[in-house]
Design a protein that fits this description.
- It is a single chain.
- With about 425 residues, the chain is α/β, with parallel strands linked by helices.
- It is globular.
- It is built from 13 helices and 18 strands.
- It has an eight-stranded mixed beta sheet with strand order 4-3-2-5-6-7-9-8, covered by helices on one side.
- Helix content is about 30%, strand content about 20%.
- Helix 5 links the parallel strand 11 and strand 12.
Length: about 425
């Protein structure tokens, strides 16, 4: 481990007079209310990320209440069997509200909730939120953590709560190439627009010499159609997989949608053809495309099979291009977002650790240039700007390392590598 802290890392006393890095509130929490919906038509992404936080809450001994629509009830009950499920307009008030719904904002301004955490992928939240999470990768001019009038905004996929299996697979993912590329088609659990069939048709058109696996929920409206089409071209259909991290880690190229699963793929550095299947995915998909972290096609436009065939031909024929996309994506998400949000829910951190970006390179070099900063480094000489930027690029692309900034303001950095743990 290497670390460098500026002279201003001391934390100001808490308003109550108690010094500390966090305001611990866990003991005062009794219950959490989650507002979400999950149906085959809208998908299960909202449920997936809220369920990860609900698991953490239950592990801490807190009650979990889910406010959801009637069609969503069976899907919520299957994933969160111990949760109390209620209609949104009958939700009891609780210490914490976790809001993950694009259209229904009524609970955000309802009295009686002590702390409100809201997912806001579209950056158009209406109502109160003490913590607002926008998973879209921030631009160079946007801070990862920023105070605003109504609370704090956390930007980027570093705060997306993924299953811990993805962070584990990120470190253990095999690097050896297979004799034949493996393509994983996983366009969301329910795939309401049937991207899976178009992807299978595209692979048949280009007659690719690859191994193909397609993963869906058995609740997907086109599940039987996809199963038949997959078997007709020698692909393997898989339903209700519980080991997506393992399956993604084993593939060379994925075809997927732009919701929560985009960050699962990014965590593992999987080169992706991202199919936009809904309006709420456009902003995220275009940002990934601009960062070189995905090849994007719009599944809402005609001619999807042909555009997928073109993208498949380009990526399957160019291992270097796949590697470039994978490296760009793995730098965006480390899979540890659940732990960061757990701290926001139960500890209210006053100082946060957030991943470094290339836009932080000049700041980190400034710190490294301070007198004494490199006295205990392996190479005491301060690197040149070119050497430092090359080092930052290598480190941020290495899925085995964490390069973190310590922020209330940016106060210092710490780098953790697997050899240090």
């Amino acid at each position: 481990m290497s670390a460098r802290f500026s002279d201003r890392t001391a934390v100001e006393p808490h308003a109550s007079g108690r010094p500390g890095l966090v305001e611990t509130v866990c003991d005062a929490v009794n219950a959490l209310v989650f507002r979400l919906d999950a149906t085959p038509e809208i998908g299960f992404g909202h449920l997936a990320r809220c369920a990860r936080l609900a698991d953490m809450a239950e592990a801490r001994g807190h009650r979990v209440i889910v406010a959801t629509s009637d069609p969503s009830r069976p899907h919520v009950a299957a994933r969160l069997p111990r949760a109390k499920i209620v209609a949104p307009d009958t939700a009891e008030r609780a210490d914490i509200l976790v809001h993950d719904h694009y259209g229904d904002h009524r609970l955000l301004d309802a009295p009686g909730f002590g702390h409100v955490v809201a997912f806001d992928d579209l950056d158009r939240l209406k109502g109160r939120a003490d913590v607002r999470l926008d998973a879209t990768p921030p631009t160079a001019d946007e801070a990862l953590v920023e105070a605003e009038d109504r609370g704090v905004v956390l930007r980027g996929p570093w705060f997306v709560p993924l299953d811990p299996a993805f962070a584990e697979a990120r470190v253990t993912k095999p690097s050896a190439r297979r004799p034949r590329p493996r393509v994983l088609i996983a366009p969301g659990a329910t795939d309401p627009t049937n991207v899976a069939s178009a992807a299978l048709d595209a692979l048949a058109v280009i007659a690719a010499d690859v191994d193909i696996e397609v993963v869906l929920s058995s609740a997907a409206p086109h599940a039987e159609t996809v199963r038949r089409r997959a078997e007709s071209i020698g692909a393997s259909p898989v339903f209700d997989a519980s080991d997506m991290a393992t399956r993604l880690a084993a593939c060379d190229l994925a075809i997927g949608a732009g919701g929560v699963s985009a960050w699962e793929r990014a965590c593992l550095g999987v080169p992706t053809i991202l199919a936009i299947t809904a309006d709420n995915q456009v902003r995220n998909a275009r940002r990934l495309e601009a960062l070189g972290a995905a090849r994007v096609v719009d599944a809402r436009d005609p001619g999807l099979t042909g555009r997928l065939a073109d993208a498949l031909t380009a990526l399957l024929g160019d291992a270097t291009l796949r590697g470039t996309i994978g490296a760009a994506s793995v730098a965006l998400c480390d899979g540890l977002g659940a732990a960061r949000l757990e701290a926001e829910l139960f500890e209210r951190p006053r100082v946060r650790l957030v991943p470094a970006r290339m836009t932080d390179a000049d700041l980190v070099l400034k710190w490294q240039s301070e007198p004494g900063a490199r006295d205990h480094a392996r190479a005491p000489r301060v690197p040149t700007s070119e050497e430092h930027r090359a080092f930052m690029e290598r480190t941020l692309a290495d899925r085995r390392e964490l390069f973190l900034l310590i922020v209330e303001e940016a106060k210092g950095y710490a780098r953790l590598a697997t050899g240090s743990w």
